[in-house]
Structures are given as C-alpha cells and as structure tokens.
Amino acid sequence: MNNTKKGLLIVIAIAIAVLFLLPLLWMLSTSFKNDFEAISANIHWIPQQFTFKNYTYSLSGDNSDVPVLRWIFNSVFVGVAGTILVVAVDAMAAYGLARLDVPFKKFLFPIFISTLMIPWVVTFLPMYMEFSDFNLLNSYAALILPYTGNAFGVFLMYQFFRSFPNELEEAGHLDGANKWQIFLKIALPSAKPMLWTLAIFTFMSIYNDFLWPLVATSSPDMRTISTGIAIMQQGTFVSSFGKLMALTSIATVPIMIVFLIGQKYFIKGVTQSGIK
Amino acid sequence: MKKKHWKSQFTSSLFVLPYLFLFVVFLLVPILYGIWISFHNWDLLAANHKFVGLQNYVDIFTSSTNIHKKFFQGMWSTIQFVIYSVPLLVILGLLFALLVNALPKRIQGLFRTIYFLPYAISVSVVAVIWLWILDTNSGLLNLLLHKPIPWLTELPYAWVALVLATIWWTIGFNMIIFINALNDVPEDMYEAASLDGANSWQKLIHITLPAIKPILIFVVITSTIASFNVYGQPFLMTRGGPGVATKVLLMNIVDTAFQDRQLGSASAMAILMSLIMIIISIIQFKATNLKKE
Fold first, then answer.
1. Which residues of A touch B124 (CB under 8 A)?
2. What whole-number distance in Å separates Cα of residue B99 and Cα of residue B232?
C-alpha cells in the first residue's frame, strides 16, 4: 500500500479514536465542574472553576443517601467472590469432564453446553422467586450465586483441558500423585492464561451487570455501583450532572484498571467466546 | 479391580459435583420453575396461585387483553431496535476491523484498545454519559450543533440516541471477533488474487467475505441476541418514551412482574421471548453448518 493511502487510514483511525474517547473525557471534565458551569451554554473542556466538590460529596462517608464507597465495595466484593467461585468450580468440573472417569460425563457435558443457548431472560424472574422464597434477596448471596450456574466457563476450560498433553499427567502418576495433586500442581498451573481469561471475563460481567442487581436488591446499602448510578440518575442527582459524572467516573476506575491490566486475556476471551 | 474402579469414579465425580449443584440450583431449577410459574395466575402478593394451564399464553395472543398490548408493543419496540442497531453493529464492526488491520503493525494494538475500551463500562455508566451528551438544552452535541434537538424525547431521535450509545458501547466486541477472523484468512489467497490483478474491493468481496462468512453469521446472531436483550439504555435514557415508543419487551416484562405483580403473565412473556431468540440461534447454527458442507 502506498504511503498517502496509509497516512489517510491513520488519520481516519485517529479521528474515530478521538470520537470514541470524547464521551469519556466529557464525563471527566463535567465531573470537575460545579452544577452551574455544567449546564452552561459554552463548551469548556477544562473547567473554568475547577472543583472537587462532586467527588467529596459522593465519597464522604457520612452521606447515607449516597453510600458510594459501600457501592464500590459491594461491586468489587461481589465481582471478586463470584469470580473466584466461578473459576474454581468451572475449572474443576471442566477438568473432571475432560480428563477423568466421571460417571455419566458423556451425558452431562452436552446438557451443560446446550444451556448456553438458553437466553438468561428465562431464568431471571424464577431466580428472583427462588431467592425470595429463601429470603435471600438483598444479600450478597443474591448478588453472587446467580452467575455460578452459567456453563460458559466449563466450556472454555474444557476446550483447554482436552488439548492438554498426556505426558505431564503421566509423569505425575508415576510420581505417585493422586488426582487432586495432579490437578492442582500440573493441570491448573499450565492453564493459567486460560484461568485469567475466564476470571477477567467473569469479573467484568458481574461488576457491570445491571438488571439483576437492580431487582435483587432494594436497600441502599446493598446496591452495586452500576445500580446505584441508575437510582441516583432517576432520583436525587437527576439534574445534577456534575455529581452524576463524578459518580460514573468513580464507577469506571476499578473496571478500567481490570480492563487495562487484563486486556490481552480479555480479548482472548472474547475471541474464544466468538468461535464456538 | 471392580472396587478400585468404583472408588476412582467417586473421586472423579467430586470434581464435577460442585458445578453440578450450582448448575441445578441456579440454572436448571429456575428454568423449570419459570415454566411452572407461567402456568399459574401468580400474583406476587397473593398467597395462593391458581393453576391456569396455558391461559397466560392464550391471553398474550388474545387481542383485547392488557398483556397482549404489552407483549406486542414491547416486541415491536424491541424488533425496531434490532433492525436499527444490528446492521450498523455488524457493518461498522467489520469496517473497524478492516481499518485496524490495515494500520501499521506497531499501532494496531493501541487503536484496537481504544475502540474496545467502552465495552468495559457498565450500561448504566454508558447511558448516563450519553444522556448528558444528548441532553436537549445543555448537552454537548446540541451545543456543538447550535440546535435544540430533542434527542431523548421525540422520534425518530430517541432511536438514534439509543442506537448511537449502543454502538459506542459494544462495537469493539464485534471488531475483535472480526479482527481474529480476518487474521485467519490464508495470506496466499490474497497473493494469488493480486497476481490475477484484483483490487482491494474485489479481494474483499471475493476472498475476505466468503472466508469469514461463518464468523459474519455468528456476529449477526450474537448482535441480534444482544439487541433483543436491550434494557438499560431505554430504561435510563428515554424511559421507554416518547409515550411507549422505545419501551422494549424486557421493560414490559419487568413492569408486568414488579409493578403489576403478575409473575405468571411475565414468565409466559419471558418464555415466549426466549423461544423467539432460540429460534434465531437455531437458524444461525443451520446457516453456519450449511456453509461447512
């Protein structure tokens, strides 16, 4: 390709990149403006009266209407706990199904995988009723457990363990290691990139989920940050865009850190989920 | 030997049991429970739920009922969103992938990351950011245009707003899948075409598109399914308005369940909605399989 054409493509790519970043920059910019300047008819990318008030208002611990720190804690805690649970349980199941003499595995695996086709909208209302029946709405259990039945992770890890070389396991057998030892000391360490893929994928989907935590929780203390934003946007903060943007900026920080650190694994996960 | 075999199987099944338990409790039981609920007149506040068989489903197809209105109005809004968003999500996703792949190797990763970045954000953040940009009076876009366009409260703008936010949010996902598919197309096919004097456009039509057809179909379907599940954007940005124009099916299902407290009707709506989505998935699998034969 000639240089002019290449240069043109780079210019287009940069223009699109700027368009993609502008909404985030506008969010950040507004979050440092006072309410008056936020709705001003003049566009100022750099706030004229730079203020941290929107952040201190949302983050101050004594603000019981907007327990943002608690919401962030809930989201991160639920994300981490859910991720650990999903990764541990799915890796074990996938290893068992792929490498061990699990009874009925020829029957179980297809059942697990076939549920990947069932849209979550089917389970959403009965799941609510299930947690309601056991009086578990508004609890961490309700925010974590519904994500654990998903077969995606089992499928992903199964693919990996299937192509895992026999020799390593056999060497373990010769050393007298039992199944658990082989799983923990040989299979899992070699599956590390895959485990990270699943972990980041799972964390992001739990941290970012919206509708389920919205219906599964009702007390302000048990909200996650993504549902907290929705509540504030339709309530107290409805016309205070400075505060709202501070809230969304705060919500974006943890997930951006995870995304940027785990980016290469996450992209791999997207690819793997794409090629069924 | 026999005893040892039994013991070995027992140890092995311990690996699968924890997941099996979670699968049953948090997937299988909810599915069956949902079907069970849909056969009942299930008022959330009433103590007794009367078995009504298929009545909830019959009601959905009986034109005089409230539930009929909710289902079909919601379905129409959802289908409109699918029609507006899916072609753009697929075509722009592919164009972005082609663009990134045509850039010098050193900067591909940077642009891929930037275009993919919004995908990491939750829908409530996406909706609130765009709500702010598209605000009629003080939104950034109208300030730039010097026009008070009612992006969120009038048609057809409300659809434009929802589709715009959705594309910004999710296009990166499709792009990544396309980039990987494009990288799997054998290089020698392009070389052969070059020798035959094919230009870039001809290569795209005759080599690239046929080679990535299964992935193309896959992306069409995943985008359709994702768009069917739309909830956060209209819930937060247009609140279903103007009127009920952007009130999508999922919003009506949630309303039927939690405002009207009619769990039975809501479950029947949810089951019908997913049947439609499953049928679309099956068509996808069929289409991809045909290609392979």
1. 210, 226-227, 229-230, 233, 248, 251
2. 30
